[in-house]
Protein backbone atom coordinates (compact mmCIF):
# COMPACT_ATOMS: atom_id res chain seq x y z
CA UNK A 1 0.00 0.00 0.00
CA UNK A 2 0.98 3.58 -0.32
CA UNK A 3 1.70 5.88 2.59
CA UNK A 4 -2.04 6.42 2.75
CA UNK A 5 -3.40 3.24 4.27
CA UNK A 6 -7.17 2.87 3.79
CA UNK A 7 -9.23 2.66 6.95
CA UNK A 8 -12.12 0.23 7.36
CA UNK A 9 -15.35 1.44 8.90
CA UNK A 10 -18.98 0.38 9.18
CA UNK A 11 -20.89 1.29 6.03
CA UNK A 12 -23.60 3.94 6.26
CA UNK A 13 -26.68 4.33 4.04
CA UNK A 14 -25.00 7.29 2.29
CA UNK A 15 -22.18 4.93 1.20
CA UNK A 16 -24.40 2.68 -0.91
CA UNK A 17 -23.87 4.35 -4.32
CA UNK A 18 -20.09 4.25 -3.82
CA UNK A 19 -20.31 0.63 -2.65
CA UNK A 20 -22.24 -0.34 -5.79
CA UNK A 21 -19.65 1.40 -8.00
CA UNK A 22 -16.79 -0.30 -6.16
CA UNK A 23 -18.37 -3.74 -6.57
CA UNK A 24 -19.13 -3.14 -10.27
CA UNK A 25 -15.52 -2.16 -10.93
CA UNK A 26 -14.16 -5.14 -8.98
CA UNK A 27 -16.37 -7.78 -10.59
CA UNK A 28 -17.00 -6.58 -14.16
CA UNK A 29 -14.13 -8.63 -15.62
CA UNK A 30 -15.93 -11.84 -14.53
CA UNK A 31 -19.02 -11.17 -16.68
CA UNK A 32 -17.48 -12.64 -19.86
CA UNK A 33 -16.25 -15.73 -18.01
CA UNK A 34 -19.55 -16.36 -16.25
CA UNK A 35 -21.85 -15.26 -19.05
CA UNK A 36 -23.73 -12.97 -16.66
CA UNK A 37 -22.99 -10.44 -13.94
CA UNK A 38 -21.68 -11.98 -10.70
CA UNK A 39 -24.22 -11.99 -7.88
CA UNK A 40 -22.65 -9.12 -5.89
CA UNK A 41 -23.18 -6.80 -8.86
CA UNK A 42 -26.94 -7.36 -8.55
CA UNK A 43 -27.28 -6.72 -4.82
CA UNK A 44 -29.23 -3.77 -3.46
CA UNK A 45 -26.61 -2.17 -1.24
CA UNK A 46 -29.17 -0.08 0.66
CA UNK A 47 -30.69 -3.36 1.81
CA UNK A 48 -27.27 -4.93 2.38
CA UNK A 49 -26.24 -2.08 4.71
CA UNK A 50 -29.57 -2.29 6.53
CA UNK A 51 -29.65 -6.09 6.98
CA UNK A 52 -26.04 -7.21 7.27
CA UNK A 53 -22.65 -6.27 8.64
CA UNK A 54 -21.30 -4.09 5.84
CA UNK A 55 -18.01 -2.21 5.87
CA UNK A 56 -16.11 0.05 3.52
CA UNK A 57 -12.41 0.70 3.11
CA UNK A 58 -11.92 4.38 2.53
CA UNK A 59 -8.99 6.39 1.26
CA UNK A 60 -9.16 10.17 0.86
CA UNK A 61 -12.97 10.07 0.87
CA UNK A 62 -13.13 7.36 -1.80
CA UNK A 63 -14.58 3.90 -1.18
CA UNK A 64 -11.76 1.60 -2.29
CA UNK A 65 -13.09 -1.63 -0.80
CA UNK A 66 -16.32 -3.27 0.30
CA UNK A 67 -16.85 -6.09 2.81
CA UNK A 68 -20.19 -7.76 3.54
CA UNK A 69 -20.62 -10.25 6.37
CA UNK A 70 -23.85 -12.17 6.94
CA UNK A 71 -24.59 -13.43 10.41
CA UNK A 72 -25.96 -16.99 10.38
CA UNK A 73 -26.96 -19.42 13.12
CA UNK A 74 -23.68 -21.32 12.80
CA UNK A 75 -21.28 -18.48 12.09
CA UNK A 76 -20.49 -15.65 9.76
CA UNK A 77 -20.49 -15.83 5.98
CA UNK A 78 -18.10 -13.55 4.14
CA UNK A 79 -20.65 -12.79 1.43
CA UNK A 80 -18.62 -10.30 -0.55
CA UNK A 81 -15.40 -8.38 -0.56
CA UNK A 82 -14.50 -6.19 -3.46
CA UNK A 83 -11.53 -4.04 -4.41
CA UNK A 84 -11.51 -2.08 -7.69
CA UNK A 85 -8.72 -3.01 -10.14
CA UNK A 86 -6.72 0.17 -9.52
CA UNK A 87 -6.37 -0.77 -5.83
CA UNK A 88 -5.74 -4.49 -6.30
CA UNK A 89 -2.33 -6.00 -5.65
CA UNK A 90 -1.64 -3.65 -2.73
CA UNK A 91 -2.83 -5.88 0.11
CA UNK A 92 -6.24 -4.30 0.56
CA UNK A 93 -8.14 -7.52 -0.21
CA UNK A 94 -6.05 -9.35 2.37
CA UNK A 95 -6.70 -6.56 4.88
CA UNK A 96 -10.46 -6.88 4.31
CA UNK A 97 -10.36 -10.66 4.79
CA UNK A 98 -8.26 -10.27 7.96
CA UNK A 99 -10.84 -7.78 9.20
CA UNK A 100 -13.60 -10.33 8.48
CA UNK A 101 -11.72 -13.00 10.45
CA UNK A 102 -11.27 -10.57 13.33
CA UNK A 103 -14.99 -9.76 13.32
CA UNK A 104 -15.86 -13.47 13.38
CA UNK A 105 -13.50 -14.07 16.32
CA UNK A 106 -14.79 -10.99 18.17
CA UNK A 107 -18.30 -12.38 17.80
CA UNK A 108 -17.01 -15.67 19.24
CA UNK A 109 -17.28 -17.83 16.12
CA UNK A 110 -14.77 -20.61 15.58
CA UNK A 111 -14.72 -20.29 11.78
CA UNK A 112 -15.35 -18.00 8.83
CA UNK A 113 -17.27 -19.22 5.79
CA UNK A 114 -17.11 -17.81 2.28
CA UNK A 115 -18.01 -18.80 -1.24
CA UNK A 116 -16.88 -18.12 -4.74
CA UNK A 117 -18.17 -19.09 -8.17
CA UNK A 118 -16.84 -22.42 -9.40
CA UNK A 119 -15.38 -20.77 -12.53
CA UNK A 120 -13.13 -18.57 -10.37
CA UNK A 121 -10.49 -21.27 -9.99
CA UNK A 122 -7.76 -18.78 -9.08
CA UNK A 123 -9.84 -17.62 -6.09
CA UNK A 124 -10.47 -21.19 -4.95
CA UNK A 125 -6.74 -21.96 -5.09
CA UNK A 126 -5.87 -18.73 -3.25
CA UNK A 127 -8.33 -19.57 -0.46
CA UNK A 128 -6.93 -23.11 -0.19
CA UNK A 129 -3.40 -21.69 0.17
CA UNK A 130 -4.73 -19.52 3.01
CA UNK A 131 -6.17 -22.49 4.93
CA UNK A 132 -9.77 -22.60 3.72
CA UNK A 133 -11.25 -26.02 2.99
CA UNK A 134 -14.13 -26.89 0.66
CA UNK A 135 -17.32 -27.65 2.55
CA UNK A 136 -19.89 -27.94 -0.24
CA UNK A 137 -20.95 -27.00 -3.74
CA UNK A 138 -24.37 -25.54 -4.26
CA UNK A 139 -26.35 -23.65 -6.89
CA UNK A 140 -27.85 -20.45 -5.49
CA UNK A 141 -29.90 -18.06 -7.67
CA UNK A 142 -28.44 -19.77 -10.75
CA UNK A 143 -24.80 -19.45 -9.61
CA UNK A 144 -22.63 -22.53 -9.05
CA UNK A 145 -20.92 -21.75 -5.77
CA UNK A 146 -18.04 -23.41 -3.96
CA UNK A 147 -18.36 -22.89 -0.20
CA UNK A 148 -15.24 -22.89 1.94
CA UNK A 149 -14.45 -22.58 5.65
CA UNK A 150 -11.46 -21.49 7.68
CA UNK A 151 -11.12 -22.45 11.34
CA UNK A 152 -10.15 -19.53 13.54
CA UNK A 153 -8.02 -19.72 16.66
CA UNK A 154 -9.63 -18.50 19.85
CA UNK A 155 -8.70 -15.08 21.10
CA UNK A 156 -6.48 -15.05 24.17
CA UNK A 157 -8.32 -14.25 27.41
Descriptive account of the structure:
By secondary structure, this protein is an alpha+beta fold. The model has no long low-confidence stretch (mean pLDDT 92). Helix content is 30%, strand content 34%. The protein is globular, with a radius of gyration of 15 Å. It has a single domain, classed as Aminopeptidase. The chain has five helices and seven strands; from the N terminus they run E-H-H-H-E-E-E-H-E-H-E-E. Strands 1-2-3-4-5-7-6 form a seven-stranded mixed β-sheet, with helices on both faces. A hairpin with a 2-residue loop joins strand 2 and strand 3.
Class based on secondary structure composition and strand pairing: alpha+beta
From the N-terminal CA to the C-terminal CA, the straight-line distance is: 32 Å
Number of DSSP helical runs: 5
The tally of beta strands, per DSSP, is 7
Largest sheet: 7 strands, mixed
- The percent range for strand residues is 25-35%
Question: Percent helix among the residues?
Answer: 25-40%
**What is the average per-residue confidence, as pLDDT, rounded to a whole number?**
92
The CATH first-level class comes to Alpha Beta
Would you give the CATH topology? Aminopeptidase
Task: Give the name of the CATH superfamily.
Answer: Gcn5-related N-acetyltransferase (GNAT)
The 3D shape can be described as: globular
Please identify, by name, the CATH architecture.
3-Layer(aba) Sandwich
Question: Strand order across the biggest sheet?
Answer: 1-2-3-4-5-7-6
Amino acid sequence: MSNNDPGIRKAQPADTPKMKNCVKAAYRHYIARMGKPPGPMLDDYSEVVRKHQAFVAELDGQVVGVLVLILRDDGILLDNFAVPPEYQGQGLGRKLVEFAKSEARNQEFSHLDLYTHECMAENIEMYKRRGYVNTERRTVRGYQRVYMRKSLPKLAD
